[in-house]
Amino acid sequence: MVGGGQGAFIGAVHRIAARMDDRYRLVAGAFSAEAGRARASGRELGVAEERTYTDFAEMAAAESKRKDGIDVVSVVTPNRFHHRVAKAFLEAGVRAICEKPMTTTLEEALDLVELVGRTRLAFCVCYNYTGYPLVRQAREMVAAGEIGQVRVVQVEYAQDWLTTRLEETGQKQAAWRTNPAEAGAGGCIGDIGTHAFNLAEFVTGLITQQVCAELTTFVPGRRVDDNVQVLLRFRGGARGMLWASQVAPGNENALRLRIFGERGSLGWEQEEPNRLLFSRYGRPTETITRGGPGLGKAATSATRIPSGHPEGYLEAFANIYRDFADLLTAWPDGPSGSTPSLLPGVTDGARAVQFMIAAIQSSRAGATWLDLTP
Questions:
Q1: Is the pLDDT of residue 338 over 60?
Q2: Boundaries of domain holding 145
Q3: Cβ-contact 42, 29 below 8 angstroms
Q4: Are residues 175 and 110 in the same domain?
Q5: Residue ending a domain, choose from 88, 121, 154
Q6: Does 12 score more than 60 pLDDT?
Q7: How far apart are CA 324 and CA 339, in angstroms?
């Protein structure tokens, strides 16, 4: 692991997800650039001192030379390091799981696409909401035509934790996420807006062709956006809207997706992830439950425990790690063909970066329509 040391949030989530199915062991890490924090983090996590590094490049070089060197690196640093860290390990022959957004610029994203294509090393981006069983069920139902041709896509991701200037209190997560030197040019758009975008394309299978965006900074003195509203035009004629906000009081982690087709609709909410609403025009709405009857293969394989026992965020995250382990088991020398469609790969990561940059540019140009050619 690179990043994820003392005081970090997402590193612990990745470690739990990796261990949940007994497919990984944490044996090396550059948990912080601060030597004291790196060593203390390594001790807390049971990593040997000689495999606790303070420099990710040193770690990549050293681990690639060891007979017992790491098989995979998990990149959980602030955004600005993602490209440099992932590139160093890929060039050293190490596969990578990378936090989102994959990079802060499109040039960096395309560089990783080229590098993964050249090295043929497995690479995953943690769009973890695609790991929920009923998200995968919805994707399968849309693909099977159960709601007919998609007409309208509504996706939103609302939080309230940055309603005040939390970054000024010393709160570490708020500080780096609202600092463009750490997070990149996008604030809310990169942190949660890319999640919403990825989820919309993942479930519907649609390709977004154009975006028209307005990014707003409501909290005085904040240097990045904290509210995002985007109109979407999809290939094939469907239309959509995306709203992401971190200044919406009363919302904790309210990721919501609704898809309306010519014959019906689907609705899913992350805070109630074990239920999927399925409406067929002219008939009563059905509630499909995780682990319940009638589920397809994708949802069933992503389910660990019987119906009625809630599964959630950590289990969905773990499904990403398990899918990646399955990929490495199936193709130990690199993928034979493309990465399995349910696993967010390097092109999905680049696609979300492309959306982020286009939304920023559209907003700066006065909310003009911009192309989003794949």
A1: no
A2: 135-305+345-369
A3: yes
A4: no
A5: 121
A6: yes
A7: 9
